[in-house]
Amino acid sequence: MITMVDKRAQPVIFQTRMVQGILRHGKTQTRRLLKPQPSAIDAVAAQYTEYDRGHVTVITVSGLEVVSPYGVPGIHLWLRETCTLLAMPTGLEGADHLIRGPLLGQSLADRYGVPHLAGWQLAAWHDGTPDPGGWATKLRRVSGIHMPRWACRVVLEVTAIRAERLQRLTVSDALSEGVTALGADWLRANFPEYDREYADYLTRDAVCLARNEPISDQPNAPIRRAAPPLGPDPITKYARLWDTLNPAHPWSTNPYVRVVSFARLEA
Length: 267
Fold this sequence. Notes:
Mean pLDDT: 83
CATH architecture of the domain at 10-80 and 154-182 and 248-265: Roll
Strand content: 15-25%
Shape: flat
Strand order of the largest sheet: 1-6-11-12-2
Number of strands: 12
Low-confidence stretches: none
Radius of gyration: 23 Å
CATH topology of the domain at 10-80 and 154-182 and 248-265: Archaeosine Trna-guanine Transglycosylase, Chain: A, domain 4
C-alpha cells in the first residue's frame, strides 16, 4: 500500500550502507544515542509521555526531559545520505536509477557548480545503484547533511519510539537493524578472525571450482562450491557497528538509546 508522504516530513541522516539495508535487507529499526544521557543514578521511564506540542518526551527519575527529535509515531522521515549531484539531459534514456531533480536554470547551475545548459535538469546518483554513463562515480560527493529534498529516495513512517539501554538489543532487534546488509568486506575489515576464515573459504572455493564437480548426477546440476563462513552472531555484528558510529559512547558503556521503528513509504 502506498501512503501519501506528509509534506512536513523531517530529514534524518543515514549511512548509505544502512539505506541499502532498508531497501534490500528489511531494516526497520534505528538506534540513536539519547541526548543528554541520564545520570548514573537516574532511570528512564518505561514509556514516553506525549505532549500537546507534538513531541514524545522521556521523563527520568530526576525530572530530566529528553524530547525526541522524530516527533511521534505516524510522522514521516525523509532520508539524507551521501550522494552525487549532476546535470543530465531531460530526455536521457537508460537513467532509471537516477533521481531526477528540477530543470536546470542559471541560479541552480550556479548553486551546484554545474554548467547551465538548456533542456537539462539536475539529478542525483546514489551508491549501490548502476552508474548509467560510467562517470557518476568519478564526480564530487555531497554529504548527507547537504543533500536536497528532491534527491531523496527513501521516506519512512515512524511506527514506534521507545527508550532503553543499548544492551537490551535482541537477535531480532539486530536483524531489524539491518546487520545482514553489512557484507563480507565490512566483516573482514572489522573482525580479524572472520577475515582469516573468509580467506580460507576463498581458497577452498577455488579448489572446488578447479575440480568442476557437480553436486549431483542430475543434468545441469550446479558445480559444488565451498560454504562461506557464517561470521559473528547478529548482536556481535551490531555491537561492532555501533562502536564505529559512536566511539564516544561504545557498546561496553551500555548507554541509553532512542529506538525508532519504522515502515518504508514511497519517496
